[in-house]
Design goal:
Growth Hormone, Chain: A; 17 helices; 80% helix; globular
Length: 511
């Protein structure tokens, strides 16, 4: 009984540790207008306040996972929490003036680095705290609660920014202190396997991920026809190719590529990569739709996302139990087709501009994703030796973040293109010039939301007819984006059906 209580306390400590990273994925975007106004940030600077965090997170996950295995999982969680909390405090303390932009972007990047150090170690600790046949349930709780915190970002950001935008960073401090106290009380296992760090491999994969994700992130700004976009992506892929070749020759590699010989590990990472193409972008696009299409405020848009987590949280528990008893395949395959159908029907309902027509499909998508994310992630890591849990987690998180970046780039481009086309066609009927229609479409597509009434006033006409037309145009553009998400999940279904092995994973030996 004491061991079970200790495991649950460890799980609670790790949930608090990573809670900040999930909240920060969405909270900053909500307070962006106030932050930009107070600090007089350029548009590029504001973009890097958001992208800098995600870029560091993507680039450093693999290194963070390896460091966790070598230096100790508990040590890296504590270091990650402290780095994240201190960086958050310094973001909130950004001075006004000429140094503001460089200051806040720098510490946002350090926030992302702290998250990358912390997250693989936290997952490795949870896996070590529970026996193999109970990990699905434990990770279901972890992903259900931690994932739900992504929706807390818009809600918390909306309320906190009414006081001051600085509070969106300071809110991380009490969460970090709680995590550190729980870590001290629960004393999670300090498992480590000392070995040389492959710094050359670390530089190759960090540079490769950073350049590739940079190109994808900036595609909507630089344009897909820009040499900078393709130069970054191609250079990043070249670095990653060099990393793979180098790792096959080095004695103590950053990532032991032999793990990909396990059919289940490779299949589950492929499914996670495809599933993340719509998963993280969905939060941003659904929040934009709630604010622009439905006319909700930033706080209410978070409640819109909470509907998704109603299905997600329940399904992660079901998926975890299926994983423990029958294996990941029986959860992931039906989850993928459920999400594909859900995205299609949700997209079909978007132009109705009525939440009552959508909520059941939102829950359906949440349930499908809940059956995929936790079981596939957990089963992949279960296939690694105990002394390589951090490394395996670093791999899965790198794969997931690369999928998310690709999804944001491609789906964001589709949204901008479709929105411009619809708005140009509609406003042409009102006698509004194409250039002005383009300006309205750009401001809507690049905005994270806000009160959508200003889009009508930009035309110089306050007519409800124009306002309604713009809302419908945006919803129709978003419909195409959600069809793209449905296609991605249909592909994930085929990949899971064809490649994922049946049955339970057997406990691997420790090297």
């Amino acid at each position: 009984m004491g061991e079970q209580r200790s495991s649950k306390l460890v799980l609670a400590a790790m949930i608090f540790a990573v809670a900040m990273t999930f909240i920060d994925m969405t909270i900053v975007a909500i307070a962006a207008p106030e932050l930009q106004h107070d600090l007089e940030l350029s548009s590029t600077g504001l973009q890097w306040v958001i992208n800098g965090y995600l870029l560091a997170l993507s680039a450093l996950f693999a290194l963070g996972g390896r460091l966790a295995d070598v230096m100790g999982h508990r040590t890296m969680v504590v270091i990650g929490v402290v780095v994240f909390a201190v960086s958050s405090a310094l973001c909130g303390a950004t001075p006004e003036g000429q140094f503001a932009e460089a200051w806040i972007v720098t510490f946002r990047v350090l926030e992302g680095a702290g998250a990358a150090l912390m997250f693989p170690a936290a997952l490795a600790i949870i896996l070590a705290a529970f026996p193999l046949r109970k990990r699905g349930q434990a990770m279901g709780i972890f992903f259900g609660i931690a994932g739900g915190l992504t929706a807390v970002g818009p809600i918390a950001g909306g309320y906190l920014s009414e006081w001051t935008w600085r509070a969106i960073f300071w809110v991380n401090i009490p969460v970090a202190i709680t995590a550190l106290v729980l870590i001290y009380i629960s004393k999670p296992a300090q498992s480590k396997a000392p070995a040389p760090i492959d710094y050359r491999g670390a530089m190759l994969i960090t540079g490769g991920m950073a350049l590739a994700v940079l190109g994808l992130q900036q595609a909507s700004t630089w344009g897909w026809d820009s040499p900078a976009t393709w130069g970054s992506i191609v250079a990043g892929l070249a670095f990653l190719g060099a990393f793979v070749r180098f790792e096959r020759r080095v004695e103590s590699p950053l990532i032991n590529l032999d793990i990909f010989r396990d059919r289940g590990f490779s299949a589950e990472n492929a499914v996670l990569f495809i599933a993340m193409i719509p998963f993280i972008p969905m939060f941003f696009f659904a929040s934009m739709y709630a604010q622009i299409g439905l006319g909700d405020g930033s706080s209410e848009s978070g409640l819109y996302l909470m509907i998704f987590f109603g299905g997600f949280a329940v399904a992660t528990q079901i998926g975890g139990r299926i994983l423990d008893r029958r294996g990941a395949r029986l959860a992931v395959v039906p989850g993928a087709i459920l999400a594909a159908v859900g995205f299609y029907l949700w997209g079909q309902a978007l132009p109705n501009l009525d939440l009552s027509d959508q909520w059941k499909w939102i829950v359906m998508v949440g349930a499908g994703m809940g059956l995929i994310i936790s079981p596939a992630n957990t089963d992949a890591i279960n296939r690694a030796p105990a002394n390589a849990y951090g490394e395996a987690t670093g791999i899965t998180q790198t794969v997931r973040n690369f999928g998310s970046s690709l999804g944001m780039a491609v789906l964001g481009t589709i949204l901008i293109h479709q929105n411009k086309r619809h708005i140009e066609d509609s406003l042409d009927g009102f006698g509004i010039p194409k250039a002005e229609a383009d300006s309205i479409a750009d401001s809507m597509s690049e905005s994270s939301g806000g009160d959508s009434t200003h889009f009508a006033s930009e035309t110089g006409k306050e007519s409800k007819e124009i306002f309604d037309s713009i809302q419908l145009d945006f919803a129709q553009a978003m419909e195409i984006v959600f069809y793209g998400m449905a296609v991605a999940m249909a592909i994930a279904f085929v990949v899971a059906l064809v490649t994922m092995p049946r049955g339970l994973v057997q406990p691997p030996g420790t090297e």
